[in-house]
Amino acid sequence: MTDTTQSGPMLAADGTPLKRSLARALRMQKIRALMLIAPLLLFVLLTFIFPILDMLFRSVENQIVSSTMPRTVAALQDWDSESGEGPGEEVYQSIYFDLFVAAEAKEHTKLGTRLNYEQTGVSSLFRTSGRRLDDIGEEFQDVIEDVAPALKDGATWYEIMNGTGGEAVAEAAKERFGRLTDERARGDLGYVPSADIAQMLPHTTDAYADFATFTTFEDGDSVAEEDPWEAVYAALALDLRDPDTRAAVAAYSGPGAEHLQAVAAAQEQLPDFTFKDALVDADKDWGNTETLRTIQMYAPNYTSGYFLNSVDLMKSPDGVQARPENQQIYITLFTRTLIMSLVITGSCILLGYPVAWILANLPMRTANMLMILVLLPFWTSLLVRTSAWKVMLQQQGVINDVLVWLGLVADDSRLVMINNQFGTIVAMTHILLPFMILPMYSVMQTIPPSYLRAAKSLGATNWTAFWRVYFPQSVPGIGAGSILVFILAIGYYITPEIVGGTKGVFISNRIAYHISSSLNWGLAAALGTILLVVVLILYWAYDKIVGIDNVKLG
Amino acid sequence: MAETTVDDAFVEFERVQKSYDGETLVVKDLNLKMPRGEFLTMLGPSGSGKTTCLMMLAGFETATHGDIRLGGTSINNIPPHKRGIGMVFQNYALFPHMTIAENLSFPLEVRKMGKSEREQKVQRALDMVEMGSFGGRRPAQLSGGQQQRVALARALVFEPELVLMDEPLGALDKQLREKMQFEITDLAHRLGITTVYVTHDQTEALTMSDRVAVFDDGRIQQLAAPDQLYEEPENSFVAQFIGENNTLEGTVKEINNGLALVELDDGELIDCKPINVSQPGERTRVSIRPERIEYNKDRLREGVHTLKAEVLEFIYMGDIFRTRLRVAGKDEFIIKTRNAPDQQRLQPGQQIEIGWLPEDCRALDA
Ligand SMILES: Nc1ncnc2c1ncn2[C@@H]1O[C@H](COP(=O)(O)OP(=O)(O)OP(=O)(O)O)[C@@H](O)[C@H]1O
Ligand SMILES: [Mg+2]
């Protein structure tokens, strides 16, 4: 009692300020509440939020080009694709070494598939050239091993390449490896590039460091005991094409200098073809600047390409432009999905409203009985229900048979009711109807019959009483049902797939195709993201027009 | 008595029966005639069929048997919206999605009345219930009493000749209820509307009505003006139901000169007015109002039978004293006396003699 008389903050019985002890008491409650929902939260986070975020990310993510061909991407940066000239030899050298590593990691076909979305033919280009890379290297290897037989042996190579001071080169190789294979290069490489060699023979050191990284981390072998890749011989030959390098080698006195000097001396015997020629020889598409332009265009880590594709646009050197007419499908699919979802929602309202009304106005027992009938379809598998519609609607199906039997339709002109939009609308209306009836029913149940009676006692006819008094109060139920049905419909997949034919499929079917058949997950993610955004926009519009607080589930 | 005074009845129930399930009769043989302008209350315990009668009159339930007439014509086959009966529901049934003004305007709109005339009438009706400035609000933004007035205004705005109200004040607190009771009767009389009012609050029924129909078991037990109902109940249900009442049980010994001599179960004799008894030997239940009992010997009439009583409890209630006695072996005998300067205050344990005028003691059915 004395507490109330003193000035200053209110104190609890134990003398702590009341605010603080209240906060403490509430905190305990909050923690307890949080612990109760923690499993669900975790579940939703893992199974719902993360996948959605992952999808959003995938729709713009494009690191595959820069992580598979890091040197090429860097070399292409300076190339002006609109100059009309192809890129220089340096780019082709980078392509050779990048592809060689990628082929060792078996990642080059993935990149081929990815780039094939943007330009057809790239996939096969990567696959064929991947097989020819070794041949190119062997041409150098044969000569080098002839003039310096000791270089047949991996141990000799190790002796030459290993040293001190070149850690940076090894680190760069480790990082390339990490990005390419999505694995961390952990632990000891067992190889430190010699700084002198690295300075004198940069390509060779790079190629050898790549080889060392793969040997240690991918194969788990010791670098010193393995024979190097063909690409290392090619890199040595490339390095020795420079007269300054040859002079430096002649003056070099480190381990194994005599072998290098032997190779340098026999430089004229080494093949002198350019890497460009070698690659074009492997696949002539390498001579096509389009290919390199595509690689250059999709080099950035993030791309709007998937989204452009989703709305029938594409990137071109002249900026964004429409796709060729025969490739434009997504806008059509989106509009079709939207319109058909609206039609389905509309027919669900028309069919469901009277049912819900009857259910809400029947005595409880009968209403529960009938409710079971409404829910009955949920007890059968979706596939069975959809397939049943096939039986009903097909040209030799039940409905056509009946119509022919009644003489309403000639036997030779049976109605086409399936594998088109009509079939999809009928089947989906049937399947989604309960989702409309349930919220409408529970809202209608809360409307006391006395309102209708009041309206009638005030002189309204049955229709006026319904339309002016009952209907407005049932709108929240219609709203809830419509949102439910529309959102379910817009993402529906199985039913359109089965009864939709080509004219009745939805955007989801295309998404499913890209997920499971064409494996273009980026495009699927972009389409999914657009669908999500469209739904959110419609939801927002609904909120603006009708008001989301005007939606009741009971 | 009262029924015979109604010659040209405005509302008339004739031998009306109602069953919902085909097994039990909820309303059994209802006969009722109301003149124009009367305020009639249906009073009765829960489940006695009051709402059912109202619904049949409004047209939301059909009578299983019998005839309901309005202004002389049978309305059995007229749909509710053509009956032109105003109705106030127990939960008011104001349309939640319309403003107050729209609610009131609704009956006028469906009658195809012009806009300006409509607005004028709505405003007048709102002013009448002192809600003139609330037209733009929604029902949910009003207090219970305000909603009640709006409901009343809505039932009256299209100027019906007959208004039905089903426990319209049930949800209000005591003070507001009393205020509204006055306002409703005042309005009804001022506008000359015929009103059927349902309640199970007997004070409400007695203070508001021209006549009260006491319902029980699907029948009108008594239909009479409030004072008559209180002072001259025709059967023991009405006597018990209306006001406080003392009952004693016994057997009729003899009846002559309009007086019945009743022998109570413990052998004492009392004089009563025979109401529902006609011959000696009948069992009877005797009813006396607590305020009609006298214990001051000087004021008792000569020759009246008296009873011995023992005071059990004396309760001071301000304006009155309430004393509980043991009489004829019963502990629940109550007497009420006015708090007058010369009034004697009884002490528990005191032995007294009580008596009453034979007219105030009614021998009813057992
Ligand atoms: N729709 C109905 N279906 C079946 N029985 C009903 C229905 N309405 C009322 N009854 C029954 O009819 C009887 C009379 O009901 P009614 O509503 O007329 O009583 P009431 O006098 O208005 O009671 P209260 O004072 O509680 O409102 C009750 O036994 C009730 O159970
Ligand atoms: Mg009732």
UniProtKB/TrEMBL annotation, chain A:
Organism: Cribrihabitans marinus
Keywords: Cell membrane, Membrane, Transmembrane, Transmembrane helix, Transport
TM region positions: 33-53, 338-360, 367-384, 422-443, 475-494, 521-542
Membrane topology: Multi-pass membrane protein
The keyword Nucleotidyltransferase is annotated on this UniProt entry: no
Keyword Transmembrane helix: yes
Source organism phylogeny: Bacteria, Pseudomonadati, Pseudomonadota, Alphaproteobacteria, Rhodobacterales
GO CC, one annotated term: plasma membrane
Name this protein carries in UniProt: Putative spermidine/putrescine transport system permease protein
Cited SUPFAM superfamilies: MetI-like
Ranges for domain ABC transmembrane type-1: 334-542
Pfam family, one: BPD_transp_1
Localization per Swiss-Prot or TrEMBL: Cell membrane
Protein family membership: Belongs to the binding-protein-dependent transport system permease family. CysTW subfamily.
GO biological process: transmembrane transport
Coiled-coil spans in chain: none
UniProtKB/TrEMBL annotation, chain B:
A Pfam cross-reference name: ABC_tran
Catalytic activity: ATP + H2O + polyamine-[polyamine-binding protein]Side 1 = ADP + phosphate + polyamineSide 2 + [polyamine-binding protein]Side 1
A GO term for molecular function: ABC-type polyamine transporter activity
Domain of life: Bacteria
Top-tier EC class: translocase
Enzyme nomenclature, EC number: 7.6.2.11
CC terms in the record's Gene Ontology section: ATP-binding cassette (ABC) transporter complex
Domain ABC transporter: 11-242
Classification via InterPro entries: AAA+_ATPase, ABC_SmlMolc_Importer, ABC_transporter-like_ATP-bd, ABC_transporter-like_CS, Mo/tungstate-bd_C_term_dom, P-loop_NTPase, PotA-like, Transp-assoc_OB_typ2
SUPFAM superfamilies cross-referenced by the UniProt entry: MOP-like (SSF50331), P-loop containing nucleoside triphosphate hydrolases (SSF52540)
Keywords attached to this entry: ATP-binding, Cell membrane, Membrane, Nucleotide-binding, Translocase, Transport
Function field: Part of the ABC transporter complex PotABCD involved in spermidine/putrescine import. Responsible for energy coupling to the transport system.
Quaternary organization: The complex is composed of two ATP-binding proteins (PotA), two transmembrane proteins (PotB and PotC) and a solute-binding protein (PotD).
UniProt record similarity statement: Belongs to the ABC transporter superfamily. Spermidine/putrescine importer (TC 3.A.1.11.1) family.
PANTHER family, A to Z: SPERMIDINE/PUTRESCINE IMPORT ATP-BINDING PROTEIN POTA, SPERMIDINE_PUTRESCINE IMPORT ATP-BINDING PROTEIN POTA
Record's protein name: Spermidine/putrescine import ATP-binding protein PotA
Gene source species: Cribrihabitans marinus
Gene designation: potA
